[in-house]
Sequence to fold (198 residues):
Amino acid sequence: MKPTRLIIVAVGGQGNLLASKVLGEAALLSGVPVRMSEIHGMAQRGGVVESAIVFGDAKSTIISDGEADILVGFEPSETLRALNKCNAETIVITNTAPLPPFTVAIGQGVYPDLDQIKSLILSKTKRLIALDATSLAKASGSVMSTNIVLLGALIGTGRLPIPKEKMETAIRTKTKSAFVEANLSAFQRGYDVAMAGE
Fold:
């Protein structure tokens, strides 16, 4: 099976690692070979957390610059920061709800303009799905489901060899029982956005 290379970038506390576990479980349920690795920055202090996941036949989880088939960003400026991993055929999915870093909060930095972020991503990649995953998560019952909204959009692209039903099973088994219904609703909302081609 030809490898599909996925990069997920997030700020610490956004649920990147749980998203990776759910994806890994769904891949195993689907009989798809999967390898993953994570890079933890200053996650506890709002630093970046990056996951590299390779589906299919691959010997390494290292995704070099220009090699990502899909980039999923839980925060727009982190998506922009990871753009070097993309190429002209990459699909990018990003949450549009910003989590400005500490430097912006204290006035020592400026958060990039969201429209400029989108334009730059679109100029360098094949497709951009930009959605307010945080609002969709809240509408599903829990802002903590933002990561699951983005997984829904990811599966909705049809680029991964993982059926929607296997993802739903993985959500049921890998997320806390109190959040399962909210997560399933969040997953469906993200899936619908990608399917609608927005």
Observations:
- The chain has a mean pLDDT of 92.
- Strands lie at 4-11, 34-40, 48-55, 70-73, 91-95, 127-131.
- The first helix runs from residue 16 to 29.
- The helical segments are 16-29, 76-81, 102-105, 114-124, 133-140, 146-156, 164-174, 180-195.
